[in-house]
Amino acid sequence: MLAKLLCIADDQLRRLLAACSRWARAFRDWYRRPSTSELRGRKLLREWLSPEQLAQYDTHNYFEVTGCHTGKRYRIRHGNGANIIELDDAALPRTGWCFVPRDPLVAGDVMLAQKIALETDERGALAVANNFTPR
Amino acid sequence: MATQIIMDLNGDTRHNFDAKDVKALLEAERRFKALTGAGFTAATRTADGEPVVTRTFDPTAEETLFFPRLVGG
After folding, report:
1. DSSP characters over A42-68
2. Smallest Cβ distance to A40: which of B12, B52, B68?
3. What are the beta bridge partners of residue B64?
4. Is A113 helix (H, G, I), strand (E, B) or coil?
5. Domains of chain B (ranges plus CATH)?
6. Average pLDDT along chain B, 73 residues, taken 10 residues at a time
7. Chain A contact residues (CB < 8 Å to B)
8. Angle subtended by helix axes A36-48 and A107-120, to nearest 10
């Protein structure tokens, strides 16, 4: 009798844990959902990326741009700070660069401003940027 | 219909206007000057999709994007 009760309790406990796990996952997904502002920023970014950059972004969560003055390649990772990596000829990280719009903006907007700056005024952008050693 | 897109906390704010309407065009030019005067960069796109920074108001631009001055992060 006791063994049967323990077996039932064990089964009930497993069901309860499974349900809690599902609720926790649902809550995490809800909590991490992008805001309307973030979605709008991503949409604008996608509208302005070249087809190659868009494909790269969709695949890797980053895209690469060519500096208009030096022809150097830069990788812009999804994010809103310390997200630009200058690449060497072998496409390996050489230097990290950090410049952002003065006003707080969502990641998509920040990345788009960085892209336009490097593609149209690379020297001006790097003149205000801070650099760091990429990991 | 032409559009001015201003990056902000909401992602962006869009101002659509009829470029054939003189009053709307003047308002768009006033907005352009106010934003660039406040340090915003204005950019348009070529037919190939390449971004171009513009310092003066272009009444023929279909879409102009404004983003705040860049600073070291």
Report:
1. HHHHHHHS-HHHHHHHHHHSEEEEE-T
2. B12
3. B4
4. helix
5. 2-67 (3.10.20)
6. 96 96 97 98 96 96 97 92
7. 36-41, 43-44, 48, 50, 81-82, 98-106, 108-109, 112-113, 115-117, 119-121, 124-125, 128-130
8. 30
Closest C-alpha to A45, from A58, A33, A27, A31: A58
Residue B3: other Cβ atoms inside 10 A: 14
The residue of chain B with its CA nearest to that of A121 is B53
* Residue of chain B with shortest Cα separation from A104: B9
What ipTM does the predicted assembly reach? 0.96
Is the Cβ pair A102, B73 closer than 8 Å?
A: no
Q: What share of chain A is helix, strand, coil (3-state, %, to 5)?
A: 55, 20, 25
Separation CA A104–CA A80 (nearest Å): 9
Residue pointed to by tokens 């788009």: A112
Backbone CA torsion sign across B2, B6, B7, B13? negative
